[in-house]
Amino acid sequence: MSGATGRTRSALRLEWRxxxxxxxxxxxxxxTGAAWLAADRLKDAPFDDVARELxxxxxxxxLMIHGGCAMVTLMLLGxxxxxxAMRAWRARRNRMTGTAMASxxxxxxATGFGLYYFGSETLRPLASVxxxxxxxVLPLLIVVxxxxxxxxxxxxxxxxxx
Length: 162
Hints:
The protein is mainly α and 162 residues long. It is 79% helix and 0% strand. α1 (16-42) packs antiparallel against α2, α1 packs antiparallel against α4 (123-154) and α3 runs antiparallel to α4 (123-154).
């Protein structure tokens, strides 16, 4: 496939607007998740009542924005499967980090669901720890996945048939 510049473009490379949407929503998820974590800890700090209330409100807003971003992410991940993941799988490209990406995202979805719906005092804290840990792992995994994919583009022709 040729772009406007005449360069050959990988069929697996995402269209720039879709890529921008994915990177943007993942960045918002990481930022709002990390900021919520800080605000949630600070709302119980030994401040005056006004400061505690401010941190409580900040935590609530951050969690609401985080949840909204998660819903957008679910739609984008659903769109990503046929236009990227399935094509890459059939092309035998970047399978290891792609599988890791799918697995971590599935675990984040499951633990996010658990945080919202688990009533168990045993399961909810486990879901929380897992969700936070995976949330901090995901940005690193995205970078590794993208870099691995870019590196494999140059050698894709030599891997066909393996």
